[in-house]
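Researcher: Please translate sequence to structure tokens.
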Amino acid sequence: MDTSSEKEAAIALLQKYKDGLCTPEEAARIREWYESFKDLSDSLDAGEVQFAADEAAHQTLVKLFGENNIRQPDAKKARFVYYLSRIAACVAVGCTIFFMVGKIKKAQPTVITYTKYSTRKGERKEIQLSDGSVVTLNAASTIQIASDFGVKKRDVLLSGEAFFQVSKDKTRPFIIQTGKIYTRVVGTSFNINAYTDENFVSVAVATGTVQVEKKDTVGKILIGKNLTHNHLLTYDLKKDTYRQTLADAEMWSAWKTNKLVFNQASITQIARILERTYDISIKLTGKPRQPGLYTVTFDNYPLEKLLPLLADLSGITYQLKKQQLTMNIQNCR
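Model: Translation complete:
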């Protein structure tokens, strides 16, 4: 075998190994060659490095093709073979780097990070995502967008309440995680209420089709399949139960237009919503003689106008000082 063909054969064989096309015998020879570099010392001086580079080039060819196939050059070819050895050494170093980088990449799994968007009490925010989807955050809510969003799927984490308008993409599902509840869609609009101080998670579908799953010890369990327009799924966090009903989806997302819609809500639930909406602190006093549930809509009312109406409806008395509201609920009816 002449030196030119040795060079070409060495490069071709290393390329085959890189592409995963080597026979078991060829792969074994290259692995043996690769392992031999682990024994090189880091304490070589300049002359030793020169010698080691020449020796590495020669040993690379020997290991790849065998001692009997490597001819010693005569004096006229000495310079040519010298440069060929340099080329072989470069090929060896380049492939060593390739193998090492490959091992590092395989050893280090991709770390998923999240970009966080939050709203304060009394604040709402609209967020445009990279896929064209739009998320409207209600007050005191947080959404986190995964760093690999849009690669194979579109994952987000939600705490609080948001209305989603998801761009259609059947190849990359859009998945919203709210605790152990996962809402999966490919292109639709819907409202999710998942405040941590509430005992439920609700999903109200405005358009399209939605699927809801619950994470369990054995995996994910489907609890809402093919939910469509005006379907509402409510999951009870305390009882670990869920139910599907028909509901007005616009009512569940009326907060986007500054409407407060209460449907069979207790006075404590109303108080929590008022705190988030108006950025106030509410203290409840007294024990209600007969706890009631209230259905009422307040259309873009300032707090000072809303409170007298709520008092007439429920029987509460109240005192408002700056951002502190005290509500006596003893006479609730």
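Researcher: Any highlights?
Model: Residues 40-44, 75-85, 96-101 have pLDDT under 50 and may be disordered.
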